[in-house]
Amino acid sequence: MTLSAYRKVSTISFLSVIVLVWTINFAFVQGAFLVDYIRLSYWWVIYPVLIPQFLIAYFYVLRKAANQKTLEEVGKKFIITLTLRMFLAILFLLPWLINKDETSRPMVGQFFFVFFPLLVVEIKLLVSYLNQSVPEFQEEE
């Protein structure tokens, strides 16, 4: 599969997971499952912060994977982008981690409810792309 075809398939997969996570999160926020525990007026702020981070990092690593000759370089790029996103996550959550009030715990919980599924999907898509691009070595007899 070519890189452009894989980008299209992975974008559709990525967006479908985002919609699924948003739907479940919205149902929780609107009180369909838990009434007063996680009702926040600014719950949607998580999405404009996380989605661009993941899309930029994913397509950056995917582009580097198409250009690099070794998987070690791709792994280094992925670890660098993951570390950068972790620091950005801490910066984003800093107001809720410092000023502990009744909205701190629900906001941090919702953040990770969105963060981890996106991370799992990103890793799954990158691994599946890298597995198909690695030539299979046959054992010598």
| Tally of individual domains | 1
**Separation of the first and last Cα atoms:** 30 Å
What is the number of helical segments per DSSP (H or I, 4+ residues)? 4
Provide the structure class.
mainly alpha
Calculate Rg over CA atoms.
18 Å
Share of residues in strands: under 5%
The total count of strands amounts to 0
Largest sheet: none
Verbal overview:
By secondary structure, the protein is mostly helical. It has one domain. 76% of the residues lie in helices and 0% in strands. The protein is built from four helices and no strands. It has helices at residues 3-29, 46-67, 71-98, 104-133. Helix 1 (3-29) runs antiparallel to helix 4 (104-133) and helix 2 (46-67) packs parallel to helix 4. The chain is globular and about 50 Å long. The model is unreliable at 136-141 (pLDDT under 50).
Features of this protein?
4 helices; 141 residues; globular; disordered C terminus; mainly alpha
SSE layout:
Blueprint: H1 3-29, H2 46-67, H3 71-98, H4 104-133
Helix pairs in contact: 1-2, 1-4, 2-3, 2-4, 3-4
